[in-house]
Design a protein that fits this description.
CATH topology of one domain: Aspartate Aminotransferase, domain 2
Helix content: 25-40%
Radius of gyration: 23 Å
CATH superfamily of one domain: Type I PLP-dependent aspartate aminotransferase-like (Major domain)
Structural class: alpha/beta
Shape: globular
Distance between the termini: 50 Å
Strand content: 15-25%
Number of helices: 12
Strand order of the largest sheet: 4-10-9-8-7-5-6
Largest sheet: 7 strands, mixed
Bound molecules: pyridoxal-5'-phosphate
CATH class of one domain: Alpha Beta
């Protein structure tokens, strides 16, 4: 499928969800398939998949885009197609999440986004970074390393019964705070913190905010510009359904000069001066005759080649999300998650996800012997995650392709264990 074909295929023509056209024909909104997308997600049919917070299955359109890319590399008929896919993925990400394409870079993982920001701030001993206790474990490993080796202080805002209160950040931020870094929706109990309020507080104190949005983007309408967040990053392999190997990074335009790239490669070179004049890109040449002009937009963080197959998949899956609609996804999954949470609580399990939480993730204490529980879940073909084995947490997540029957299947499975 050419780029133009795919773009036009992914564009919603008009009409209601009930009349939504997918590659598989007219998918009606039914009780079994409220958003008309199950045909795109075979994973939803061969098991009860309640595990997108771990990794989202890719839809057919993304699979087709990945195969088309692989086929192209077999024959190498159109060497520019990978660059077109890159532009398309960046543009789709920017449009869907309220950014300018110049503010978006395609990185490898979520961790890359936070590392670029932290490394680009030129921290000095005595500076501090404020996080909350529910931030991703990988962040702690990075920031504790900086604390131990470079004298950067890590300040941790505690949670209160699984909730992060924005006002609790106030006393942790001071003149040496260089960054507030949070997971907008955390991966442990799915609590979604009030990012807009946090940004207002941090900015009033002169501090920048990085948001790890990997558990949030794709679950509800988001406008990163209006949220006011300075930096954000989300890998494609969860709620963006693009698979592993690429992540969308947002940096507000005003910070582009301040955050210098922390690694270098040919990708940053916009133009090169050769003995015969300025040329685009990086021709083979001899130092010291060359002079470079570097990229100045967010694409300067794309320092080298990307995993273009993954990029093509992401472009396609973002197109699908746009077609389905983030508001529709939110309106479908949030009530389903509330139903799931209430059902689990009614069975008598201790639920860690706060009531009224605005994210499609629920975690609770299952109290079972883990190996046997995993065996039974595998036998029942139900996919969920386990967290914090000492506390025996089960994490369940519902996404656009789940339905009430999926939720009921899990509740039926849990009933004898309660
Ligand atoms: C909140 C959060 N941040 C970061 C990550 C890690 O993402 P990546 O592997 O893309 O760096 C995860 C993975 O589960 C996560 O849930």
């Amino acid at each position: 499928m050419s780029l133009w074909d795919r773009r036009s295929f992914l564009t919603v023509s008009a009409g209601s969800l009930a009349a939504m056209k997918t590659r598989h024909g007219m998918a009606m909104s039914t009780e079994e398939d409220p958003l008309g997308v199950r045909g795109e997600f075979p994973a939803a049919e061969n098991q009860t998949f309640l595990n997108t917070a771990w990794v989202g299955p890719i839809p057919q359109v993304a699979r087709d885009a990945g195969v088309a890319y692989a086929d192209e590399t077999l024959i190498w008929a159109d060497s520019r197609s990978r660059l077109d896919e890159k532009e398309l993925a960046r543009a789709e990400f920017a449009e869907l999440f309220g950014a300018k394409p110049e503010e978006v870079a395609l990185l490898f993982t979520t961790a890359d986004g936070e590392a670029i920001v932290v490394n680009g701030l030129d921290l000095e001993p005595g500076d501090n970074i404020v996080v909350d206790a529910l931030h991703y474990t990988g962040t702690f490993s990075h920031l504790m390393y900086l604390q131990d080796h470079y004298g950067i202080e890590l300040r941790v805002v505690p949670h209160r019964d699984g909730r992060i209160q924005v006002e609790d950040f106030e006393s942790h931020i001071d003149a040496r705070t260089r960054l507030v870094s949070v997971a907008w929706v955390n991966n442990r109990n799915g609590f979604r913190l009030d990012l807009e309020k946090l940004v207002a507080l941090a900015h009033a104190k002169g501090t920048l905010v990085y948001a790890d949005v990997v558990q949030g983007l794709g679950t509800c309408p988001v406008n990163l510009t209006e949220l006011g967040v300075d930096f954000a990053c989300a890998a494609a392999h969860k709620w963006l359904f693009g698979g592993y190997g690429v992540a969308g990074f947002f940096i507000r335009e005003e910070h582009l000069e301040r955050i210098r790239p922390d690694r270098w490669g040919h990708g940053q070179v916009f133009q090169t001066r050769t003995p015969s004049g300025w040329v685009t890109g990086l021709p083979a040449g001899r130092f010291p005759e060359l002079e470079f002009r570097h990229r100045v937009n967010a694409d300067k963080y794309e320092y080298s080649c990307l995993a273009y197959g993954a990029v093509a998949q992401l472009a396609a899956s973002l197109g699908l999300l746009k077609q389905v609609g983030l508001a529709e996804i939110e309106a479908h999954t949030m009530p389903l998650a509330r139903e799931l949470r209430a059902g689990i609580a009614d069975l008598g399990f201790s639920v860690w996800t706060p009531e009224g939480n605005q994210a499609p993730i629920v975690s609770f204490v299952h109290r079972q012997e883990i190996t046997e529980l995993m065996r039974q879940l595998a036998e029942a073909r139900i996919s969920v995650s386990f967290r914090e084995h000492d506390r025996a947490l089960m994490r369940v997540s519902v996404s656009l392709f789940n339905n009430r029957r999926d939720v009921q299947r899990l509740l039926d499975f849990l009933k004898p264990l309660a």
